[in-house]
Amino acid sequence: MEACGCGEDQIPWMLAKFGFLGMAILVLGGLVVMTLAGWLLVLAVSLYRRWRYPPRSAELGERSGETFEETSQDSLGGFTWTTDDPR
């Protein structure tokens, strides 16, 4: 069997089988599938952690005798700036 001279024996077999557009679709489809799998994994882990370790609420603390500090309304959360160099 003779090659036509266009380098068919030099290109990968998937590119030869599916063409350039088909390979682009396969690569992009693989990226989409991996992204969705990552999102689902993160969702599953976060739901498990929320189920296993539920967030503590202020009402729970008041009933058990603990006190919770109020959260700061400013964006810095109590940060203070000093001009002194740390030593």
Question: Would you kindly provide a brief summary of this structure?
Answer:
With 87 residues, this protein is mainly alpha-helical. It is built from two helices and no strands. Helix content is 54%, strand content 0%.
Which secondary structure elements does this structure contain, and how are they paired or packed?
Layout: H1 13-52, H2 58-64
Description:
- It is elongated and about 75 Å long.
- Helices cover 54% and strands 0% of the residues.
- It has helices at 13-52, 58-64.
- The mean pLDDT is 76.
- By secondary structure, the chain is an all-alpha fold.
Descriptive keywords:
single chain; mainly alpha; 2 helices
Number of helix segments? 2
Largest sheet: none
Rounded average pLDDT: 76
How does the helix and strand content classify structurally?
mainly alpha
